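Researcher: We're teaching a course module on how sequence relates to structure. For the next exercise, students receive a sequence and then see the predicted structure as tokens, so they can try to spot secondary structure elements on their own. Here is the exercise chain.
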Amino acid sequence: MRYAVIMAGGSGTRFWPLSRKSCPKQFLAIGGEARSMLRATAERVLPLCGWERLLVVASRSHARPIRRILPELPAGNLLIEPCPRNTAPAVGLASLAVHMRDPDGYLAVLPSDHIIRPAGSFRGLLRAAFRAARSGALVTLGVRPTRAETGYGYIRVGTRLSEVHRKPVFDVRGFTEKPDRRRAAQYLRSGDYYWNSGMFIFRADAILGAVAAFMPGLHAGLEEIRHAPRRARRQVMERVFEQTESISIDYGVMEKSSEIVMLPWEHDWSDVGSWAALPGVLSCDRSGNTLEGDTLAVDCRGCVIRSSERLVSCVGLRDLIVVETADAVLVCPIDQAQAVRRIVEKLERQGRDDVL
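Model: And here is the predicted structure for the students to work with:
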């Protein structure tokens, strides 16, 4: 059977001051949606799995808002991480949960905070990816690059291996982390590179086998959880996570395996990684400004301006981000949007929990 696993443990620090510890990016309505990004992600895949086979992985502090956003989610389908340990342990935990329910199960691992359109075409791609995973391959989805983006990782593809449901399947030759501008331009020209979407599809037994091969410590911990008595499973899980290395599934498994294949996504996609991504997913005015809330822009160009509580009026600005909330205001150049997380880090050092 097919399962969908939504990874909802991110903190979304680059969307401060709108995103907070208690309400990170995935719980917000971003990108012109009236619903939260988490809700949009769930509804995008529900036709493939239904609520019974939809799992969400998140931290304990986010359990209550997730229940509020997804009231239809069965109680046992919310998997709580005892402590944050990046995506490899989270994927391992979800894969174990699927395998214990259904030894022949497949899972699609999906971030909770991406914008993907159109939803119907994306489901078609997932159906093809599930089919490609039947062989035991670890399937990733790559996004056709449209610009020399330095904020994404890249997937280098090789031979076109086959076609499933009219979707091409490519051999993967390697992964590259965020390149500099020159290399990103080379990747764009070559046609052999795709953006790494962070979405994966595999058989539960295949990914658990890969974890055993490349992350034996995590595999041993997952086996402890599997064989723990039900009444002691939470305690065992907490101990395992405390002792587990914090590492992404990309580094821990995908970059080491020779069983990786990729299916390309050719339509609209954005990980909405920072405020600078909004012009790509929202309509802009004639001057290239993205305006949300009660805002007024006079002689401004290429700006992202958002109001939550009050009128925000801007005059003569160029390529700036201006975000207002009830208790904080952010102003920064749009090309420094990735550095917003440094503000969050400094506020944490100052103990400013009131604005975190």
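Model: If you want an answer key for the exercise: The chain has two domains: 2-270, 275-355. The mean pLDDT is 95.
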